[in-house]
Specification:
Length: 446
């Protein structure tokens, strides 16, 4: 079986340990599936994130364990020669939101997010790439090359019930859901002129901050400058075939199964950051799923040892600030006239243990108090919540604890959510706006 992702990390799995039931075909991909030891932590409804689909259905068929069973059957040939387009496999994967919780919370670290990407790529190879997958997956290109048209089209679609209905009929995009609108102007990328007493950093401005929320990148630049750093904004290498298109982590391509496109983006990132890798320059990201994709999923694209070297330089904003705080950096912050805030962590922040850094960074603000919502996935999960057949499931996930907590919070309480999808879901489900931690820290600068 030819796989689209690099599964060599699983090469020694199943040797001399308790792993069993490795499927007959699939090589190392089959071993990645077979790491499940049936602990059934994925059928937990207490604290934690895993597994959002099980939490809303109560049905074991929508748990990680059941998905593993379906993949084992497919790789053992029980679903026929072209098993990846079998309806039984599609049904099993239908409500997976690629939250990464299973990799963190499962004792066996089942990486269902990557398993799903491979599944989608295999399915596309048999059936072709659906229009909706191309639409959502290629948003970095659409936003860069057709910005004005995309912005106008989205605004008109959100205002017209007829256009929203047509969008659902033609592309399967939920008519009930407003689509995020590109900002009037993208991030300008003005660089710091001062030398920076604490050195230089690179700000990796992802697709969503660049095109939809440039204020976040501007706020992060201001915060880092105030902390004493010279800020440069990541740019493609001079040899890049598209030097005017911003760098992209490839996350949207991975979640839609467009692996070759994701690999191309990964190569662009490595080429652009090669000098920074050599110098050890900190590279700071803002969108959790984007930065953490570079730290994690980039390994699966078979791009060589440089991926590990790059990972050592990558930080989310709050991770970097906390690290530097331990080294003597101090932000001059003032007390904010705000009631207790509500903080919602992106699934990937939780899966990679970043919430500790988020807590610590928020504690830098004098007198600032907050509660962290004990929640599973917000349910938006990239394009999942935009898909007509998943619209209800998406809101059901948000209603487990996130949206009730937002509604119960004081009407003037700030809501902190670093994830682009999370902010979109909170606004749609409650009518409340939320902010990125970079904006909060900028507002607290003395």
């Amino acid at each position: 079986m030819k796989t689209f992702l690099d599964w060599s990390a699983y090469d020694t799995y199943g040797i001399g340990d308790a792993y069993s039931g490795i499927p007959a075909t699939g090589g190392n991909y089959a071993k990645a599936v077979a790491v499940c030891m049936h602990s059934r932590d994925c059928q937990n409804t207490g604290k934690g994130v895993m597994c959002p689909s099980y939490r809303i259905t109560g049905d074991r068929a929508h748990s990680t364990e059941a998905r593993v069973a379906a993949f084992k059957a497919a790789l053992n040939g029980e679903y026929g020669d072209k098993s990846f387009d079998d309806p039984r496999l599609a049904e099993s994967m239908d409500l997976c939101v690629s939250c990464k919780a299973c990799k963190k919370e499962c004792p066996s670290s089942v990486d269902m997010t990557l398993i799903k990407t491979e599944y989608l790529a295999q399915k596309h190879a048999i059936l072709g790439v659906p229009k909706r997958a191309m639409l959502f997956g290629a948003i970095p290109r659409w936003a860069a090359h057709y910005r004005k048209l995309l912005r106008l089209g989205t605004i008109l679609r959100n205002r017209s019930k007829t256009l929203a209905w047509l969008g659902e009929r033609w592309f399967g995009i939920a008519a009930e859901r407003a689509l995020p609108v590109l900002a009037a102007k993208p991030f300008a990328g003005i660089e710091t002129k001062d030398a920076g007493e604490r050195g230089e950093v690179i700000l990796f401005v992802d697709t969503f901050c660049h095109h939809f929320d440039p204020e976040i990148a501007e706020a992060a630049t201001t915060v880092l400058e105030s902390a004493g750093y010279k800020v440069r904004h990541a740019k493609p290498a001079a040899s890049d075939a598209e030097p005017d298109r911003p760098l992209c982590c490839g996350r949207t391509y991975l979640t839609t199964g467009l692996v070759e496109e994701a690999r191309a983006e990964g190569k662009r990132v490595l080429e652009a950051f090669r000098p920074e890798i050599a110098k050890g320059t900190p590279i700071i990201g803002l969108e959790p799923s984007c930065l953490l994709s570079l730290r994690d999923e980039l390994y699966s694209l078979g791009l060589g040892a440089e991926v590990g070297d790059l990972g050592k330089n990558l930080y989310l904003l709050e991770e970097f600030l906390v690290r530097e705080h331990q080294r003597g950096m101090r932000l001059s912050l003032k007390k904010l006239d705000m009631p207790k805030a509500l903080v919602h962590g992106h699934c990937h922040q939780k899966a990679f243990g970043v919430m500790k850094a988020t807590r610590k960074a928020l504690s830098f603000i004098p007198g600032f108090t907050f509660d962290i919502v004990e929640s599973s996935c917000c349910g938006m999960a990239g394009s999942f919540g935009l898909e007509a057949e998943h619209y209800k499931a998406s809101l059901d996930m948000a209603e487990i604890s996130l949206l009730p907590a937002v509604r119960e919070a004081s009407s003037d309480a700030p809501i902190i959510a670093n994830g682009f999808s999370c902010r979109h879901q909170i606004q749609h489900g409650s009518g409340r706006n939320s902010m990125h931690i970079a904006v909060l820290l900028r507002d607290a600068l003395a």
